[in-house]
Amino acid sequence: MDTSLLVIQTLNGLQLGLLLFLVASGLTLVFGILDFVNLAHGSLYMLGAFFCATLTIWLGSFILALLISLPITALVGYLVERFVARPLYTRDHLDHVLATFGLILVIDTLTHMIWGPEGLAVPLPDWLRGQVTLWGDTVVPTFRLMIIGAGLAAAGGLFWLVNHTRLGMLIRAGASNRTMVSALGIDIEMLFGLVFALGAALAGLAGMLIAPITEANIGMGNGIIITAFVVIIVGGIGSIKGAFIAALLIGLIDTLGRSFLDDIFTLFMSPTAAENSAPAISAMLIYIIMACVLAFRPQGLFPPKVR
Amino acid sequence: MTRRTLLTIVVMVLVGLLPPLLYWSGNAFYLDLATRLVILAIAATSLNLILGYGGMVSFGHAAFVGLGAYAVGIPAHHWLYGGMDAIATTSGYVQIALAVGVAGFFALLTGLVCLRTTGVYFIMITMAFAQMAYYLILSIEEYGGDDGLVIDTRSEFNWISLDDPIQLFFLAYVSLVIAMLIVRMIVNSRFGMVLQGAKGNPERMATLGFNVYVFRLVAYVISGAMAGYAGALLGNFTTFISPEMMDWSRSGELMFMVILGGASTSVGPVIGAVVFIVLEEFLSHFTIYWHLPFGLMLMAVVLFARGGFVGMLTKRKDR
Amino acid sequence: MTDILQIQSLNKSFGGIKATDDLNLSVQTGELHAIIGPNGAGKTTLISQLSGGQKPDTGKILFKGRNIAGQPAYKRASLGITRSYQITSLIMEMSVLDNIALAVQAGDGHSFRFLRPARSISHLRDRALELLKQVDLAEKADHQTVALSHGEHRRMELAIALASEADLMLLDEPMAGLGTHESHQMVELLRGIKGRHTILLIEHDMDAVFALADRISVLVYGHIIATGTPAEIRDNEAVQHAYLGEE
């Protein structure tokens, strides 16, 4: 196992983990405060990518496009809250799941109609296209470092928002005691809308960051949403700290598992056996970890204190 | 006779008679459609046992169907290309047993974990486990990975040929009727009373002395095994299987059938499957974007019409 | 007389609040033992710990001499403890008779039986109907549970507790929310079953408690401050001070 590959894969795992956190934090916020399951959260991730791709092509600036796409995605999130989620708060989770499943079909098809079936590439400016040499011949693409930087910044911003602002105070209070927040005379509907919009912006940001690597494409949201579920199940539904730790854990384990599991397996089985079983096991790795966590802690690693 | 019984009989007679009649009068296409419908109705019926009667919102049911299909495809693949002698066969009995066994076992393993949780956790975990099965199959190159697997030889039985579409249809139809009767029998039994009681009030059931977890687990395994059987039929019907069969949107469609048709009624899942197939066929004739009206309809049903079709058709009389 | 239930140094806190504070209590076989105490004294928390809904932090619950503090609810039920709920806890989607029949079924061997329709098993049905007659609900047997009144729900709770033929019945405020007439009816029902079952009764209705109980314990801030006959409790100064005096 060579160190350079290990470093690069660790960075890749970190990158995946941070993107997962951006998606999962919105999910966990929405669930923790609104008790609402939004399957279509992945669609917001996808929409963020498409908005950013289109705007980058129009404006010629990725950064500018990203900054404009954020509020647009947040607005979409707000509209989803207003017209789909809000009428369903009093219903059970089954209804949430069915309605937002319908919403996924709607958003996916609309995306298909507007942008066509092909993926949409996002051109990057030159300064983001190069590579950075870490040492010797260990190089990483500049943009991947930017994803990690932006992801960390967003995570930091979110922690600051939740822990040090009035909005954050309300969010934390709302997560543990909804009636108390309404009793404080807070416009609870506005708070819910804001939380949804915030979650949408975070998921959208993840989509915008990954789009230059993978292109914006229609299936992208539905792939990441389940992994994000795994993250919040492991982290404990409703906990941002749990989502952060679990996201990094899942991102690293998934990435490193895929690249090194066969090497690890050869330590105690024949190379052929390792080669045959490693892909299957690494594909299941994060789910196995989820199952293990649940077997010992059904409420996840960091369950919110009161619900 | 209650309205609901009447509705069940009418629907089942129509589903059983209409497609063969159309087939014999030269419209082979409709038989194909109906076979798919009936097979999906079996899967939906199995889901209804846990979702409708047991209150377990499983969003991973397509995994059982997919595993059942691969339990036909993989032995057939090895029979043709060699390897894995232990399971290389085209015998329908072995394949069906394998389908039911593998799906049931997967239900047992995953059920042990996910039934420790309830509510949203349960929804997400069933989804995640289904995705695990999806990625597992996807990662095995020998079985085609993403590209899927062609079933060259259908399951072989000594008294029926699945290559004949009309025989395949009747096998599926009879299976559906039996599946409905089995679910009905389970639901009305002592076991079923506990299962339904646990849906309504699990805490009370525990206080009465029932270990709710075990009852749910047994129902979950039965349901998974039944869906595995439906998967075996589906593999034989399409003769092409791919991990996409286990995609969570497939699970969502099965849920749609149960809920739209009418959960915790015998005929509900069948009506749901009819509506789904008709919509898919009808809408996709007009537009390749048929998922748009379909999705809008799904949202409208959830937002405005509750109780599904059976509820609408039998309002006020029964219940 | 032997003690069917002994609670020794039971403790349970939620956050910083002690809901059960070094609680000791014995219930004798065959008696109707009432627990009274002001709101928030921890009465329902105590019942939950006895039935298995909540786990105590420390302490022992000896039922027939065996510590059951760590057992899950369904195990305790099979050992012979049943409870009714202060907030009606029935299966609303089922008929009245089905609710009671399920409770009868619970005491009739295992329920992993898949073939025969449960509703055609006559001994379950007959016993359930008998119980409904006992609580004066026979004519409502085929109604949907959700359609019944609050008072009728309370009586269904009692019928379910009776169905288990448990050695120890924990009744959590069976009179909660009942009007005068219905309360009288409930008192008479309880008087009818008293002596045949050991009952631990939690109740706010003082007239009912003093009319029915063999012994009364007073629970204040999670701690038993006195136990005795109704006459002893009525005369106990500490009780008057802590509780009755405030009325």
Compile the SSE list and pairings:
The complex is a heterotrimer of chains A (307), B (319) and C (247).
Chain A: H1 3-34, H2 41-59, H3 62-85, H4 93-115, H5 126-129, E1 131-135, E2 138-141, H6 142-164, H7 166-176, H8 178-183, H9 188-214, H10 220-235, H11 240-266, H12 271-296
Antiparallel strand pairs in A: 1-2
Chain B: H1 3-24, H2 28-53, H3 61-81, H4 92-114, H5 119-139, E1 149-150, H6 165-188, H7 190-200, H8 202-208, H9 212-238, E2 240-241, H10 248-261, H11 268-286, H12 291-304, H13 308-313
Antiparallel strand pairs in B: 1-2
Chain C: E1 3-14, E2 17-28, E3 32-36, H1 43-51, E4 58-63, E5 66-67, H2 73-79, E6 81-84, H3 96-106, H4 122-134, H5 150-163, E7 168-172, H6 180-193, E8 198-202, H7 206-212, E9 215-220, E10 223-228, H8 230-235, H9 237-242
Parallel strand pairs in C: 3-8, 3-9, 6-7, 7-8
Antiparallel strand pairs in C: 1-2, 1-4, 4-5, 9-10
By oligomeric state, this entry counts as heterotrimer
**Approximate strand percentage of chain B:** under 5%
**Arithmetic mean of pLDDT of chain A:** 87
Query: Which pair of protein chains has the largest interface, and what are the residue counts?
Result: A-B, 42 and 43 residues
The CATH class name of chain B reads Mainly Alpha
Describe the sheet with the most strands of chain B.
Answer: 2 strands, antiparallel
